[in-house]
Design a protein that fits this description.
About 20% of the residues lie in helices and about 30% in strands. By secondary structure, it is of the alpha+beta class. The chain has an 8-stranded antiparallel β-barrel.
Length: about 230
C-alpha cells in the first residue's frame, strides 16, 4: 500500500493530520511545499504522482537561483489531502511541530514523459505553476550507484535557467514568510491567529501583477491594430 508507512507513523486519534487515501489520477497535477518547524526547520516538497504526494524533505528549502543545488531527502508518500494541511502536530507525535502551506500550485512534466516514469528513472524534469515557485525544476537522485538505503534517498532540487530564475533569491525574505492558504506566519499558525490582512495584501499584489500583464497585452494589441 502506497500510504502504509505514512499511516504507520501516525496516531490519527491524536494528530490533526489527514489519514487520506490514494486518489485516481487527475488531469492536472498539484505540487505543494510546506514549511515545517519540527525538531529542525525544513521544507517538504511534494509532487502528486499516481494518486499520492511523493515527498522530499529539503533542509534549506527550494531556491529560484539555478546556482543553488538543494539537497532533498526522500520521505514517505503522503495523501493528496495533506496538500491543504496547515496546523500544529502535537508533541509526542511523529513530526511534532508547526506546518505551513508555504506554496501550492500545479505542475507539468517536461518532454512528455509521465512523472511516475521520470521518478523510476531517478530524474524528474517539471514546470511549476505556484505562487512563489515558477518555471522549470529538476529533481535528480544522487546515490544511484549506492547500496546504502540512506544514500539512495538523497536527491538534488535544481532550478532551471529560464525567465523565472532569480539569482537574488532569499527564502528568508519576509515577503516569502507566509502561508499561501491563510496568509499566516509559522508563529501565527502556532498561536492559531488570523493572517487575513497579510493574505489580502498578498493576493492583491498577485492580482496587480496579473492586471499589469493583461494591460501590456492589450496595449500590444492596440499598437498592432494601429
Amino acid at each position: 500500500m502506497p500510504l502504509e508507512e505514512y499511516r504507520r507513523k501516525r496516531k490519527f486519534t491524536e494528530t490533526p493530520e489527514p489519514a487520506g487515501h490514494v486518489r485516481r489520477a487527475a488531469r492536472s497535477r498539484i505540487f505543494v511545499v510546506q514549511k515545517h518547524d519540527a525538531s529542525r526547520l525544513h521544507y517538504d516538497f511534494r509532487l502528486e504522482i499516481k494518486g499520492v504526494l511523493v515527498s522530499w524533505a529539503v533542509p534549506k528549502g527550494p531556491s529560484m537561483n539555478p546556482a543553488e543545488k538543494r539537497l532533498a531527502i526522500r520521505t514517505e508518500d503522503h495523501p493528496i489531502e495533506y496538500a491543504d494541511f496547515e496546523g500544529v502536530i502535537p508533541e509526542g507525535q511523529y513530526g511534532a511541530g508547526v506546518v505551513m502551506v508555504w506554496d501550492k500550485g500545479t505542475y507539468e512534466p517536461k518532454d512528455g514523459i509521465a512523472p511516475d516514469e521520470q521518478f523510476r528513472r531517478a530524474k524528474i524534469d517539471i514546470a511549476l505553476h505556484g505562487e512563489k515557485l515558477r518555471g522549470g525544476f529538476t529533481l535528480i537522485r544522487t546515490g544511484i550507484g549506492s547500496t546504502g538505503p540512506s544514500e539512495r534517498k538523497r536527491w538534488l532540487l535544481i532550478k532551471h535557467r529560464d525567465q523565472h530564475a532569480d539569482p537574488s533569491w532569499d527564502i528568508e525574505s519576509p515577503e516569502l514568510d507566509h502561508s499561501v492558504l491563510s496568509g499566516r506566519t509559522l508563529k501565527e499558525i502556532a498561536e492559531n491567529r488570523s493572517g487575513k490582512t497579510r493574505r489580502l495584501g498578498w493576493h492583491l499584489s498577485q492580482a496587480q501583477q496579473r492586471a499589469g500583464v493583461k494591460r501590456k497585452k492589450n496595449i500590444g494589441r492596440e499598437l498592432r491594430r494601429g
